[in-house]
Amino acid sequence: MTAVAAGVLAPADVPVVPTALTWRDHWGALRMRLNIARHAYRVEPGLYRVGSPSAVSPVLVTANWKLTFDTLRSNLAGVDAWLLVLDTKGINVWCAAGKGTLSTTEVCRRVIESGLMDVVDHTTLVLPQLAAPGVEAHAVQAITGFRVVYGPVRASDIPAFLATGMRATEHMRRVTFTVAERLALTGVELSVAWRPRTLGMLALVALASGVGRWGFSPDAVISRGGIALLVGFAGLLCGALITPVLLPWLPFRAFAAKGALVGAVAGAVLYALVAPAVGGLAALGAAVAVVTITSFVAMNFTGTSPITSPSGVEREMRRALPFQMAGAAVAAVLWLASAFVGKGF
Amino acid sequence: MSGLRYIEDAVSLEYDSSKCRGCRRCVEVCPHGAFAMDGSVAVLVDRGACIECGACRRNCAYGAISVNAGVGCAAAIINGWIHGTEPTCDCTPGDCC
To answer: What is the ipTM of this complex?
Structure first.
């Protein structure tokens, strides 16, 4: 009787995945970082292997976002292990755990359905530490008999973690937010800039900026409208790139306040640049708009960062949103007023 | 971690050490080192570092930890306000940021 006929999974039937990434994988990763088709980058859930695992080799559980899967396997050169890929709907480990798609139920279901028990004769699962918000380790053990060991936060620490008998150092257990890590995330933040909705809104504001006491003037669209575009992109750049990069060195805890500070500097520069051309009133409106946009965009970086609590974010928002709305109103009034009583364009 | 800390006094984490059985799970799962072992009992050593991810609560088999867990994300909270639901990072149903 063959293994398949008996309904038993043979180790050789488990697909092997390489630990080296190809140019296509790197290209895919770049697209993910720029927010291009980010939700359609998935791996088929189920059991895989790297190297030549045996019945006693470790079982590493992961999510089915391909960028997550690639990060894991590319750190497993020289390691023999089973990879149990969960169906997290193409979401990374931490977000899926927070959302509940990486759950106790999903872990148990994959353990039972994947045929894992046919190929290993131990009862230990290594889950990423960041899966813990979604998984009750004691419940997984009660249901499947598998003991959960939470591995390191970063896949790059897995070889060392396995080599030391599954002991994670304190460093392996801590989430970091280094400049490189913050920069890697800014592409998705900045991708707001090339969304049709953003471009459409900016185009509309630019067109409206051509209207004034002179009626409608194409030259005003270029001059005042150009400044409006500059304001939009400057605010986005300051909130989605400069504030995240400078995050630890900016004063204040609230991201909205950090952003407002960066926006104030950028707004002052913008004022000095455009006031001679369009007058103080319009320049002031532009400056206030930059502060407001930067503060709002920076506030949205809370969701990207690994250091913010929802209670803290809600408190920050209740304080910041009234200022941001007032800022938007003041900027709009100044901009409109400058079209009728200001210097012009 | 590079001195990065967030608003600390809003944190909802509560820990009842009398229920602790010393399994170490909270120490293991916290990504910000809020818990540490003191002999055979876990102690909350850095409450302000808590990001309310809920990992400790979910992995405490003895109910010693309570926290109002969720995503620390402004967009998610705005989504929740608009739709009158819990904060959610769902951009479209079935998908997510």
So the answer is: 0.90
- End-to-end C-alpha distance for chain B, whole angstroms: 25
Instruction: Tell me how far apart the alpha carbons of residues A205 and A286 are, in angstroms, rounded to a whole number.
Output: 12
Comparing CA positions, the residue from B15, B20, B65, B55 lying closest to residue B39 is B20
Cβ-Cβ contacts under 8 Å for A144 (sequence gap 6 or more): A107, A108, A111, A112
First to last CA, chain A: 86
Task: Quote the strand ranges of B1-97, DSSP E.
Answer: 14-15, 35-38, 41-44, 65-66
For the stretch A4-61, pLDDT in tens is: 445 788 888 899 999 999 999 999 998 888 888 888 899 999 999 999 999 999 999 9
Q: Is A94 exposed, middle or buried (0-12, 13-18, 19+ CB in 10 A)?
A: buried
Closest CA to B59 of B96, B14, B90, B28: B28
CA of B95 to nearest chain A CA: how many angstroms apart?
7
Whether residue A130 contacts residue A168, with contact meaning beta carbons closer than 8 Å, is answered with no
Instruction: Find how far residue B77's CA is from the centre of its chain.
Output: 16
* Token pair for A70: 């690639």
Which of B4, B67, B91 should we substitute to test contact with A (largest number of A Cβ atoms within 10 Å)?
A: B4
pTM, 2 dp: 0.90
User: How large is the angle between the packed helices A23-33 and A66-74, nearest 10 degrees?
Assistant: 130
Q: What is the DSSP letter of B2?
A: T
CA–CA dist B51, B71 (Å, integer): 8
Q: How far apart are CA A133 and CA A95, in angstroms?
A: 9
Q: What is the pLDDT of residues A135-167, one digit of tens each?
A: 999 999 999 999 999 999 999 999 999 999 999
Q: Which chain B residue has its CA at the smallest distance from A176's CA?
A: B1
Beta partners for residue A339, in sequence order: none
Looking at CA atoms only, how far is residue B81 from chain A in angstroms? 11
Q: Inform me whether the C-beta atom of residue A129 falls under 8 Å from chain B C-beta atoms.
A: yes
What is the torsion angle, in degrees rounded to the nearest 10, for the CA atoms of residue A152, residue A156, residue A162 and residue A164? Answer: -90
pLDDT at residue A192 is higher than 90: no
Quote the CA–CA distance of A140 and A246 in Å, as a whole number. 41
Give strand pairing partners of B44.
B35
